[in-house]
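Below is a filled-in request sheet from our internal design queue. Each sheet records the structural input a requester submitted and the sequence that came back. We keep these sheets so that new team members can see what a complete request looks like end to end.

REQUESTER: design group, bay 2
PRIORITY: normal
MODE: inverse folding
CHAIN LENGTH: 124
BACKBONE (tokenized):
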């Protein structure tokens, strides 16, 4: 499956952005999906993941209550809604997919397919 992430940009502290990840090449509903991010000089870190159906999600503590992951399998698209943004959310955000479930997989090495990344900058 090929992934194309978009929606990054510049946001103010407390603002919102929505990232999208469009999948192609395979049946999207067969792939668990996650979002990761990588800030300058830091390792890639898990943000959250969503089940095949979109019915369940799991988030890193750093974004819990502020970020929401969803997916629309009919549109082959996953989403990351980011609210109450903080300067420490500044990073390149990547969508990732793996065949079958993603809900118990939170390491970047668990995912075989990656989007190209989209930059989110939160300015104070």
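RETURNED SEQUENCE:
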């Amino acid at each position: 499956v090929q992934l194309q992430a978009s929606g990054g940009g510049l946001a103010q502290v407390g603002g919102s952005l929505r990232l999208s990840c469009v999948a192609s090449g395979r049946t999207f509903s067969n792939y668990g999906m996650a979002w990761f991010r990588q800030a300058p000089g830091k390792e890639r870190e898990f943000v959250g993941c969503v089940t095949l159906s979109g019915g369940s999600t799991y988030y890193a503590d750093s974004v819990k209550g502020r970020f929401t992951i969803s997916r629309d399998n009919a549109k082959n698209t996953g989403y990351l809604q980011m609210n109450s943004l903080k300067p420490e959310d500044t990073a390149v955000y990547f969508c990732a997919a793996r065949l079958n479930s993603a809900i118990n997989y939170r390491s970047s090495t668990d995912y075989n397919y990656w989007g190209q990344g989209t930059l989110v900058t939160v300015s104070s």
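SHEET NOTES:
- The chain has a mean pLDDT of 96.
- Residues 27 and 73 are 9 Å apart (CA to CA).
FILED BY: M.R.
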